[in-house]
Design a protein that fits this description.
alpha/beta; Rossmann fold; 60s Ribosomal Protein L30, Chain: A; 3 domains; 7-stranded parallel β-sheet; 6-stranded mixed β-sheet; binds 3-phosphoglyceric acid; NAD
């Protein structure tokens, strides 16, 4: 059997050796097609290998009628429509580790070049100027580097910065005090990091939560003369806000490898002498390119030959028998995890999942992985799936405990998820109502009956007349329409919760005024 493989971005020739030497692989390298041309020819291929340039859109995927696997030779999969691939049963694999070192080294190169104005000085020299006054830099030693996102690359950058005798302070939703102590760095909230740092480097994925994480308000709380680096993803920093912050002299320098729109030839940030930039070169080393190409090539060969893959991004690996019995709970389990990721704050230390009733008589591990997927996705992004969710939880150091009991607890089946964080314990329970779909039936100790979908608002308040009215009036003022409402309490006159379904997406900032109202204790936006 012969498989047709299309490589549509430049990959290392050494790196695709596993593909070249495998039997039955017909490899076509075509890195010049327009999106329209790619859409025309993709139907002939079993596998597509890309970097970040090829946009693997829904249209391309839908035209890929023979496509079985998409390999991303790198980390970010934001150029691939994962939903479309999953819907079409196409597995997406990436190479998450192969370019970590190169991206970290590039970040350090940008940091040092920026601090010592090396690109600007070089340009001046090339223009036949011997100018020693215009390019006075600053030392890194004893300065503070703020790292936002301490994953693979962020942690490598932090280690290197310590080698430069810098102090490092980091924020990552999965960073605990103990982990920070082991790494010899400080930890704090995003605000702590932004306030303390002389240099700030971002290393998060680009997600709804991280888009414009560094915005006008963030610049305002930073030190005067702060310098910023982005070697992660364009869009984490609001480019207009960065421009204004540089012009107003709040920010003394910016080093950018990635941009909101790529590629480009003209960019207003590049008109500023304080900005240095590279055209998305973080992973562009011989070593990284060979390594990521080897990793995806091995996975492509293995998958096409019916084997396992090392780095699945969207694979749902559930056996048919298990699938038949537990598939109805898949969506609910993910929603319970997602619900708790918004409800709980602090660093997650432990997840307890209680299965009771009939469902508990099955192998529920795929449901547990799906719950973890829901829980982790908000911070780790779309590459978390039911296959890699447990692996990621283990890597982060989250203890996961499955508890099973065939006792029914009032429902035929009940899934209860409990998350222990550094700030306490939160719990949510859900079930499937015969013919009526999924319901959340308990939040912490409060009984409710909520459809787990759309935009929800959790509000904790005192159980007394007027609370609902005050909340309704304030939401009306903000033009937030309430579609459904549930109130739950354990004792009359004690604490109670409201669960609202609202018509539009809001974040916690949008509803922060609710907790200023009398007897309203907590207001949390939950997007399912
Ligand atoms: N410039 C390049 O060529 C290049 C090369 C490789 C990777 N990247 C990009 O670098 C970034 C990091 O890659 P990685 O391999 O280290 O990923 P990773 O998944 O190992 O780490 C990302 C970290 O960001 C954290 N995070 C998520 N939301 C956050 C938030 N709101 N605030 C703070 N932290 C948050 C996560 O908890 C995680 O620890 C990605 O965007 C990736 O696409 C760029
Ligand atoms: O996400 C990544 O791996 C990097 O952004 C590298 O992208 P590239 O493969 O296009 O260089």
């Amino acid at each position: 059997m012969t498989f047709n493989i299309l490589i549509s971005d430049p990959l290392s020739e050494e790196g695709i050796y596993p593909l070249r030497q495998a039997e039955g692989m017909n490899i076509v390298i075509d890195t010049n097609s327009t999106p329209e041309e790619l859409a025309m020819k993709i139907g002939d291929y079993d596998a597509l290998l890309v970097r970040s340039q090829t946009q693997v859109t829904r249209e391309i995927i839908e035209k890929g009628t023979n496509l079985k696997i998409i390999g991303r030779a790198g980390v970010g999969v934001d150029n691939i429509d994962l939903d479309a691939a999953t819907e079409r049963g196409i597995i997406v694999v990436n190479a998450p580790d192969g370019n970590t070192n190169s991206a970290a080294e590039h970040t350090m190169a940008m940091l040092m070049s920026m601090a010592r104005k090396i690109p600007q000085a070089f340009n001046s020299l090339k223009n036949q100027q011997w100018d020693r006054k215009a390019f006075i830099g600053v030392e890194l030693k004893n300065k503070t580097l703020g790292v936002v996102g301490l994953g693979r690359i962020g942690a490598e950058v932090a280690a290197r910065a310590k080698g430069q005798r810098m102090n490092v302070i980091a924020y990552d939703p999965f960073l605990t005090e103990e982990k920070a102590r082991k790494l010899g760095i400080d930890f704090g909230s995003v605000e702590d990091v932004l306030k303390a740092a002389d240099f700030i480097t971002v290393h998060t994925p680009l997600l709804k939560e991280t888009r414009h994480l560094i915005n006008k308000e963030a610049f305002e709380i930073m030190k005067d003369g702060v310098q910023i680096i982005n070697c992660a993803r364009g869009g984490i920093i609001d480019e207009d806000a960065l421009y204004d912050a540089i012009v107003s002299k709040k920010v003394a320098g910016a080093a950018l490898d990635v941009f909101e729109q790529e590629p480009f030839l003209d960019h207003k940030l590049l008109t500023l002498p304080e900005v240095i930039a590279t055209p998305h070169l973080g992973a562009s080393t011989f070593e990284a390119q060979e390594s990521v190409a080897v990793d995806v090539s091995i996975d492509v060969v293995s998958f096409l030959n019916g084997g396992l893959v090392q780095n699945p991004v969207n694979l749902h690996s559930v056996s048919k028998e298990v699938m038949l019995k537990i598939a109805p709970f898949f969506d609910l389990s993910e929603k319970l995890g997602a619900f708790l990721s918004s409800l709980s704050d602090g660093v997650i230390e432990e997840v307890n999942i209680f299965y009771s009733g009939e469902v508990a008589t099955n192998d529920v591990r795929p449901l547990t992985r799906n719950t973890l997927k829901g829980l982790l996705k908000r911070n780790l992004g779309d590459h978390v799936n039911d296959v890699n969710a447990k692996f990621l939880a283990d890597r982060i150091g989250i203890k996961v405990v499955e508890n099973k009991s065939s006792t029914t607890k009032g429902f035929l089946n009940l899934l209860t998820v409990e998350v222990k964080t550094t700030n306490g314990v939160r719990r949510v329970a859900g079930t499937l109502l015969n013919g009526m779909g999924a319901r959340i039936v308990k939040v912490d100790d409060y009984p409710v009956d909520v459809v787990p979908e759309g935009h929800l608002l959790y509000i904790k308040h005192k159980d007394q007349p007027g609370a609902i009215g005050r909340v309704g009036t304030l939401l009306a003022k903000e033009n937030i329409n309430i579609a459904a409402m549930q109130v739950g309490r354990t004792i009359i006159g004690g604490e109670a919760i409201m669960m609202l379904t609202i018509d539009k997406y809001v974040d916690n900032y949008d509803v922060k005024d609710l907790v200023e109202l009398d007897d309203i204790y907590e207001a949390i936006a939950i997007d399912l």
